[in-house]
Amino acid sequence: MLQGTNLTKDFSVRLGLFRGNATLRAVDHVSLAIQPGETVALVGESGSGKSTLGRMLLGLIPQTSGALNYCGRDFASLQGDQARKFRADVQAVFQDTSASLNPRRRVGESVQAPLLFNRRLSAQQARIESAQLLERVGLDPKTFAARFPHQLSGGQRQRVGLARALASQPRFIIADEPVSALDVSVRAQILKLMQDLQAQEKLAYLFITHDLGVARLIANRVMVMYLGTVVEEGNAADVFAHPSHPYTVALTLAAPIPDPTRARPPRHLMGDIPSPLAPPSGCRFHPRCPFAQAICKTDAPPMREFEPGHLSACHFADQVRAPK
Ligand SMILES: Nc1ncnc2c1ncn2[C@@H]1O[C@H](COP(=O)(O)OP(=O)(O)OP(=O)(O)O)[C@@H](O)[C@H]1O
Ligand SMILES: [Mg+2]
């Protein structure tokens, strides 16, 4: 349904006075396809390019190179009704609801806006349907429709964000860290709500998260990003049972508790993610990799398939893979 081929995004960043500009490659030749009704989790540490990829897929920022297709049509060729359909079909839910909810608008009005402007309902129909949408996300419209976003808790705001996204009757939601700012108990409620909505509406999700526990709970398929590239992807069950890239192994070791509703002490990967302004040669993960050999410093490993749909980009994936 939504497809990206060799997507690359460069940003020009200022290095400082007299030092000019440099090019930062936030996403480097990433290809992905998301099918109707599936949940793809995009995981990776901070700065790996997850949000940048999500924003390109939403059409919010243009790609530097590569192709984007929606239902077989190039993004650039979407016009008029097709462009409107794309904007309704593909919705975003962000961690920070202040990006999607106008602070000066009451909750009811925020949910009504897409009903009035995208779906062209009458004012009365929009009021009725926005109340139904609030109910569906677990908010009593009598209590909440007249409130402003700042009068809600984080979990309630995220529910409003979902109601607003659903108002356009989307087929695909790109959710960027939708539960990361929430308390563990609220996090579980919102994840459950998102799963229920998906089952009812046959929605597809691209679920961006740095939390492997969340990915494990919600995803059919997982893509692991490191410094702008995908290093491993596959069926969620396969990837978590047989991680085949040292980076995925490190991430799974850092997140040993599969239940995202339980708090856990933070544990980190060795060292920091290198600067994308000067990515390491060869395999980008080699400076942090316990398996690294000479070849890893010079040759970027290609993606290899280990079981149907399960790919990893590591010269030593055979050694890394957990045995069956
Ligand atoms: N507008 C921009 N201009 C310059 N650099 C940017 C811009 N947006 C993102 N970047 C850089 O691109 C890289 C990827 O950023 P991105 O926000 O996609 O990471 P992320 O994986 O979503 O991280 P996080 O988990 O912290 O949200 C980072 O190094 C970031 O500093
Ligand atoms: Mg991000």
Please summarize what this structure is.
With 324 residues, this protein is an alpha/beta fold. The chain is 34% helix and 24% strand.
Descriptive overview:
There is one protein chain. The chain has helices at residues 50-57, 80-89, 107-117, 123-136, 141-144, 154-167, 184-201, 212-218, 236-241, 246-254, 294-298, 317-320; strands at residues 2-16, 20-34, 39-43, 65-70, 73-74, 90-94, 172-176, 204-208, 221-226, 229-235, 304-307, 310-312. By secondary structure, the protein is of the alpha/beta class. It has a single domain (2-320), classed as P-loop containing nucleotide triphosphate hydrolases (Rossmann fold, 3-Layer(aba) Sandwich), CATH 3.40.50. The strands form two sheets. Strands 6-7-8-3-9-10-12-11 form an eight-stranded mixed sheet, sandwiched between helices. Helix 7 (184-201) links the parallel strand 7 and strand 8 (204-208). Helix 3 runs parallel beside helix 6, helix 4 crosses helix 6 and helix 6 (154-167) packs parallel to helix 7. The longest helix is centred in the middle third of the chain and has 18 residues, at 184-201. The protein is globular and about 70 Å long. The structure holds adenosine-5'-triphosphate (ATP) and magnesium ion. Residues 50-51, 176 line the site of magnesium ion.
